[in-house]
Design brief:
Elements (H helix, E strand, L loop, with lengths): L1 E4 L2 E3 L11 H5 L2 E9 L2 E2 L2 H14 L8 H15 L4 E8 L16 E7 L6 H6 L1 E9 L16 H12 L4 E5 L5 E4 L3 E6 L2 E4 L10 H12 L4 E3 L4 H5 L3 E6 L3 E8 L2 E2 L7 H15 L2
Parallel strand pairs: 7-8, 7-14, 11-12
Antiparallel strand pairs: 1-2, 1-6, 3-4, 3-5, 5-6, 8-9, 10-11, 10-13, 13-14, 14-15
The structure holds 4'-deoxy-4'-aminopyridoxal-5'-phosphate.
């Protein structure tokens, strides 16, 4: 495993940040999770664009230009040597005072971890997983825009804890109006009435990179698709449902709140898109 912190490589045991870093003290920072397939970083441009947008939204200046950061990421992947990997790229506000004021943090820190990928068991892809609807609502845009991929994941984490306690791998978060937003770390899609549907950023879905790839693949395959406002009714009556995310890739969902989705097995559209996705990531 290779870890790069502010210009220096170190191993897992030596990798350290200050206890005064506001990323730790306040969750003040932004991040990306990125995949490496066959030695190539998947959709790096899109991930970097989202990272710089998130940073801009919280007035955090990333101390490397996008091209330099791109080269740093690809350099770390080469140094790591593994053809398939997971990258965690984090930019924190850096070291400051114990007070929250970001103005007292002169230099943001960049942390780049290239690690092994921990796959979900293949059984999950074959059988689908069960979801529950969280009792918590997705953070309101009146508080902050969830398009900011920040280190503040407490909303997601509390929903994940609730899911864990209920024996589910993931939870659906509704937004303040009761419409489906997304899951704790994944976007959600349904196949219903001959159209592939997924909530939009207007309903507090993160503009996921995997989500965008799936929409592209669906377009190329001629599948009708739409960003749509969805309710629990739409989930419960869907013919198929799946999640997308950098870690999960495309995960079939066969149960929500104890109700069987479709016929209770990953449906043909889900399986087709999963196949197209796996081809896409291996393309030279
Ligand atoms: N929603 C949330 C809340 C996430 O944290 C993530 C990624 N971890 C996603 C959706 C999926 O986004 P992506 O496909 O870019 O990984």
């Amino acid at each position: 495993m290779k870890i790069w912190i502010d210009g220096r490589y170190c191993g897992r045991e030596e990798a350290r940040i200050s206890v005064f870093d506001h990323g730790l003290l306040y969750g003040d920072g932004v991040f990306e999770g990125i995949r490496v397939y066959s030695g190539r970083v998947f959709r790096l441009r899109e991930h970097l664009e989202r990272l710089y947008r998130s940073a801009r939204a919280i007035l955090l200046e990333i101390p490397l230009a996008p091209e330099e950061l791109r080269r740093t990421v690809t350099g770390a992947v080469e140094a790591n040597g593994a053809p398939d990997a997971y990258i965690r790229l984090v930019v924190t506000r850096g070291v400051g005072e114990l007070g929250m004021n970001p103005r007292l943090c002169p230099k943001p820190s960049i942390i780049l971890i290239v690690d092994e990928i921990r796959f979900y068991p293949e059984k999950c892809y074959a059988d689908g997983i069960a979801l529950m609807t969280s009792s918590l609502r997705r953070i309101s845009p009146a508080s902050y825009d969830v398009r900011i991929k920040s280190l503040n994941y407490l909303n997601n984490l509390l929903a994940k804890i609730e899911a864990n306690q209920a024996g589910c791998l993931e939870a659906v978060l509704l937004n303040q109006e009761g419409r489906v937003a997304e899951c704790t770390g994944d976007n959600i899609f349904i196949w219903s009435g001959g159209t592939l549907k997924t909530p939009s950023a207007a309903d507090q879905a993160l503009e996921g990179i995997t989500r965008a790839v799936v929409l592209e693949l669906a377009a190329a395959a001629g599948l009708p698709r739409a960003e749509a406002s969805l309710t629990q009714y739409d989930l419960y009556t869907a013919e198929e449902c799946f999640l997308t995310g950098t870690g999960a890739e495309l995960m079939p969902v066969t149960k929500i709140d104890g109700r069987t989705i479709g016929d209770g097995t990953p449906g043909p559209v889900t399986r087709r898109i999963l196949e197209l996705f796996r081809e896409e990531v291996r393309k030279p």
